Amino acid sequence: MGVDFERELKRLLEGDLQALVKMKKTCSALECLGYSVTERYPFMVIRGAGSFGVDLVALRGEFSFPIEVKSSIHPKIYLSQPRLKEQLDQFLRDCQRSNTFPVYAYRFKGVRGDPWRVFTLHVDGLRYFSRVINAKIPKLQPTRGGNFVMTWEEGVPLSGFLLEIRNIMREVEKR
Question: What is the CATH number of the domain that holds 126?
């Protein structure tokens, strides 16, 4: 089931018209506007492989970001299993070394409107677009036990994330 959502996200980011039309059916006008961004500014999206690799890598122009895709029928996902914690730590180290930011895309199953929420982790020393975008995305929240949790309502809608990228791209085009 998770692979289906990876493919859905891949098609949305690539600006696939069929996927965008399907997604927009239950979205508000503002959410539809956000998804329309990928029609003009599509990403090249590469699917990752391996259990400790990232699920997707989105590339466009001057920036890129790796994406870990999660889905659930519950409004919270706890990243507390040892394997998930190890994956998160490696993901963060790789992003710090490469001046990029990690993206966690959370697909809440069965919700109307924009079902995707985006989260990240704080990464020290980011530069350029990565720093600007990383600052605008909600961070995964640690629990008292030192694990991380994704609470769907606290994430930025994917459509809003795409609008933010559009705004940054417009600023770059002006220069």
Answer: 3.40.1350.10
Record the tokens describing residue 57, joined without a space: 């890598």
Supply the DSSP symbol for 129.
H
The total of structural domains in the chain comes to: 1
DSSP letter for 141, please: E
pTM of the model: 0.90
Residue 144: partners with Cβ closer than 8 Å, 6 or more residues away: none
Condensed to tens digits (0 to 9), the pLDDT of residues 11-33 reads 999 999 999 999 999 999 999 99
The domain containing residue 32 runs over which residues? 2-174
Q: What is the CA radius of gyration of the chain?
A: 15
pLDDT in tens, 127-175: 877 888 888 899 998 888 888 899 999 999 999 999 998 887 777 677 6
Distances (CA, A) of 2 to 78, 131, 162: 16, 29, 22
Q: b/e per residue, 89-128, with b = 16+ CB within 10 A?
A: eebbeebbeebbbbbbbbbbeeeeebbbbbbbbebeebee
